[in-house]
Design goal:
Blueprint (H helix, E strand, L loop, with lengths): L1 H5 L8 E4 L11 E4 L4 E4 L7 E14 L2 E20 L18 E20 L6 E14 L19 E2 L6 E11 L3 E10 L3 E2 L25 E2 L3 E12 L16 E9 L7 E4 L11 E4 L4 E9 L3
Parallel strand pairs: 3-6
Antiparallel strand pairs: 1-2, 4-5, 5-6, 6-7, 7-8, 7-9, 9-10, 10-13, 11-12, 13-14, 14-17, 15-16
């Protein structure tokens, strides 16, 4: 609503300065006042909502070892997305309202479908090791990338249906805590996931709607797939029990605990890509231009008081 009040074609206007000078661009440049653009709210807009359904079963297969299976279905209805209702009709550039350039209308016509099957194993090997494993097979489909995302073709929204931006079909998590002598503890988390989708575009404004998000013919949204991710985190903790304090019971070990920890994130220093260039006209098409943080170390001290 705030954006619709601000970008109404009156309060915000755009100027194009060709051949500007520096530091004052108006001295040598020619100023062109382009047609105003506006953002509007659809008159029939409705509140979005999510429907969540799940069913699961859990069974103990052996002493202190359990296996759980859960199926989840998520449905999003009336999700927000934008559409330029003043986009050109044809190659001649004719627009429905010639007094405006773009009129981006926020509508509640998008949806989300997501389902996932999760298998979880938890257990204990005596008193010194706790393993945990989880595998998730999922599929998520939607036709919007956000309330202000615009389609490639404002008059044909069918190609916008595709994998969700967070759709990773396979996820595997392995965790464990190992207790060692001398009050040492070692914890580890291994995360493996398949690649996320990315959108493939031509890099040009082929339909003249002033947005360079056009896709090649026959391609739908989020068709490309990036590489998978692998990350191993490790934590080593040493516990110290100080001498007895005034509130400790005589003859018993101290209840005060000091824990020194070292955390290593992405200890393998594996390159986990976070964004893929999807512009076909770019020489970097299909290559990554950003990644998650490299190996990091963190040191911490924690002091625990008795109850």
């Amino acid at each position: 609503m705030r954006r619709a009040l601000l970008v109404d074609g009156i309060r915000v206007r755009h100027l194009v300065i060709s051949n500007p000078s520096f530091p004052n661009p108006f001295l040598s440049g020619s100023v062109i006042s382009v047609l105003p653009s506006a953002t509007r709210i659809a008159p029939d807009i409705r509140s979005p909502y999510l429907l969540h359904t799940s069913i699961g079963v859990e069974r103990e297969v052996y002493e202190d070892k359990t296996v759980a299976m859960e199926y989840m279905f998520l449905r999003g209805v009336n999700l927000f997305r934008s559409r330029n209702i003043n986009a050109p009709w044809n190659a001649a550039g004719l627009r429905p309202n010639p007094a405006f350039l773009n009129i981006n209308q926020v509508e509640s016509t998008a949806f989300l479908r997501s389902q996932a099957l999760t298998i979880t194993f938890t257990g204990r090997v005596r008193k010194f090791f706790k393993p945990y494993a989880r595998y998730v097979f999922s599929k998520s489909t939607d036709n919007t990338s956000g309330p202000f995302s615009l389609p490639a073709n404002n008059y044909d929204l069918r190609p916008e249906l595709g994998p969700s931006g967070f759709d990773r079909r396979h996820r595997l998590s392995l965790m464990g805590v190992l207790k060692l002598p001398q009050d040492f503890q070692v914890g580890s988390v291994l995360s493996i996931a398949s690649g996320a989708p990315f959108n493939v575009t031509t890099g040009f404004d082929d339909n003249g709607d002033t947005v360079a998000n056009d896709r090649p013919g026959g391609w739908t949204r989020n068709t490309g797939r990036g590489p998978g991710i692998t990350q191993l985190d490790l934590k080593i903790t040493k516990l110290f029990r100080p001498v007895q304090f005034w509130n400790d019971e005589p003859g018993q070990s101290s209840k005060h605990i000091v824990a020194f920890s070292v955390d290593a994130f992405n200890i393998l220093n594996h390159t986990n890509v976070s964004h893929i260039v999807g512009v076909l006209s770019s020489p970097f098409f299909g290559r990554a231009n950003s990644a998650e943080p490299a190996r990091r170390l963190q040191f911490s001290v924690k002091y625990e008081f008795p109850d």
